[in-house]
Structure formats: structure tokens, C-alpha cells
Amino acid sequence: MWVLNNEGEAMIQWRSQPKQPYRDQYDGFYIDIIIPIMRDAEIQISQNFMDTSPSNGVDSFDPYIKNYNLSDAGSPYYGDGHFYYLTLDCEDPDTFPAFRFLSESGF
Q1: How many angstroms separate the CA atoms of 106 and 48, rounded?
Q2: In sequence order, what are the residues at sequence separation of 6 or more whose Cβ sits closer than 8 angstroms to the Cβ of residue 95?
Q3: How many CB atoms lie within 10 A of CB 92?
Q4: Tens digits of per-residue pLDDT, 46-91?
Q5: CA 1 to CA 15: how far, in whole Å?
Q6: Three-state DSSP class for 104?
């Protein structure tokens, strides 16, 4: 699994308005510069790749278009999520939320 950064998309969502300048900077670096380098190295970004974690995923891999339409990076329905709770029973499977993909967890 390739992940380019940690919490990048979430940081944009946590910021107050306006968010667009931060999205433009994020896209300009990770999507316009890094992803073409990965493609040149023949890394298939449509498999085993996320530009950030947690993320709401992408709308398209070619061209690469992020899903910025949700208000919660780490939605259990799109992309991936993080889950940390120090006071819950880690041996109880009902403790874990039903994420599409749980990329970080800890107790």
C-alpha cells in the first residue's frame, strides 16, 4: 500500500473557510507533481494507493480527481479511516467501527 501523506485531506477539512486555497496547494503538490512521478515509475495508482490517510477516496484515477464532496475525511463509507480508543475492550469485535478500510487503529 502506497500512502503519500498522513492527515493531509483531514487537515484541509479541519481548517476554517476558505478551504479552496489549501485544496489547490494540496492538489498542486500531491496530484500534479507526485502522482506523475509515480506513473513514470510504473506504479499503478489505481491499485494499492491512497494520496492521504484518512481519505474520502477519489472520483477518478485517470485523470486523478479527489472526492472533496464530503465533510468528514475518514467517512466509514468512502476511502479509509482511523480509529483510536484507549478505554474500550480491544478483544470485543463490536468495539471496531465498520469502516470501508481501517488504516490505523490503536488501544
Answers
A1: 22
A2: 85, 88, 89
A3: 8
A4: 877 888 888 888 888 888 888 887 677 777 777 788 888 888 887 8
A5: 28
A6: strand
Residue 33 is predicted with a pLDDT of: 93
Nearest residue to 12 via CA among 27, 28, 4, 23: 23
Q: How large a percentage of the chain has pLDDT more than 70?
A: 98
CA 26 from centroid of its chain's CA atoms: 12
**Whole-number Å distance between alpha carbons of 99 and 42:** 30
pLDDT given at position 32? 93
H/E stretch holding 11:
helix 8-14
Amino acid letter, 59: D
